[in-house]
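Predict structure. Chain length: 295.
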Amino acid sequence: MTTPPAATTPDHVGTPTPGRHAGRVAVITGASRGIGRSVARRLAAEGAAVVVAAKSVEPHATLPGTIVDCVEAIRADGGTASWFQLDVRDTDAVEGLIAHAKAEHGRIDYLFNNAGAIVLGPVAVVPPKKFDLMFQVNVRAAHATAHFALPHMVEQQFGHILNFSPPLHLDPSPGMAPYMVTKLGMTRIAMSIAEEHRGDNIAANTIWPVTMIDTAAVRVNGMGDESQYRTPEIIADAVTELFSRPPAECTGNQFTDEEILRSAGATQLDIDRYWVTGVVPEHVLTIVGEDSLMR
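Prediction complete.
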């Protein structure tokens, strides 16, 4: 019998900057729970209209959060949001998502490709079928959402595309190559979009956490323990800061969450407030850079 993952940390709305994203429209995939949900709530609290997209409409037996109750939470806080049920592997559904955002809210300013699939293991262990799943949910979906969103961004000469993926590197990825291939592919897509649309006032960047974020995926895969987790709020703070920057001045970057926050003036004390337990671990298990858990 599979033991269900422990409940993740609750939503964190934090301290929003009122009106910072007023008039903007954000499309967020994988937004029923965890990082996507936290980013959706923060952008809405700062004035953006948010399209909350994911598969979960009905409550899951062990995983809290649906796109419906995310939208309800946003509206209860006075924000503007709509939900769209989406399997990012379905091309027609992705096209429908972008059409919904345009029809419902009038424009598409921000696209956050947060939906992801993770199956950790070496090549000899991960079945091709599982690799196909990760490719479809990670890299192919990042291409599909951008493919349908970019014409609208070009027309309005404004846009931010952000992929949740790590910085590119040439190191081997022992024990997790199938997964890392797909995540690094998302980064390559973002970097290419940045160059292809540098003259259109459209930014394309990536963001990746320095260490584990408290999500169901992290807990299910047994990546460290709660003492090593930061709350999804750190990503929400970083994303809303990034989206506030002029696209032409902030594109083609492979950011970590800490890099964005520190560049905006965050101190070490500010960074340390995101630990789930409220205590800084003696040794931080990083998932980016040399000697990290994920390469």
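Summary: Residues 213 and 284 are 12 Å apart (CA to CA).
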